[in-house]
Amino acid sequence: MEAGKRGIDTKMEKGIVYRLSISAEKGQKKQNVPGVELDIKLGIIGDAHGATDRPVSLLPFESFSKLYHPDISISPGDFAENITTTGLGYSNIRVGTVLRIGENARLEVVQIGKECHDVCPIKEAVGDCIMPREGVFARVIKSGAVKAGDSIEIETN
Q1: What residue ranges define each of the domains in the chain, with the CATH number in brackets?
Q2: Would the pTM count as exceeding 0.70?
Q3: Among 53, 81, 116, 154, which has the highest number of CB atoms less than 10 A from its own CB?
């Protein structure tokens, strides 16, 4: 019997990895890099959040337009997110959702949203921060190389 006839939704939502960002220390803006290596044990190799229970953070680039201040320019990595995406339907992402990135890498969503830092420069300047509402945190369940421009898909949710 075909999957569609069993009532299983076989449609996978798809987006693009817009930017990848890492930092050597926690609590800093992340620097954009052309590619990263996702590792089951280390998270994103070279990123300070690698050995935590939620080593990879994602944020939709479309959310950046929700914050505006005439004197502030907000760029990918400024929210300390690792993966900035475009075109991915975040409304369908839940804890437990598996995301496929590039050819091989897989992430499992472990948290949606977070508490904002006490000293959040974006919140101080603009009056709001999108990461507490729209940030997604994941762990690596299959290692692989990821580069800007790769596809990112909701594999299961």
Answers
A1: 11-156 (2.40.33.20)
A2: yes
A3: 81
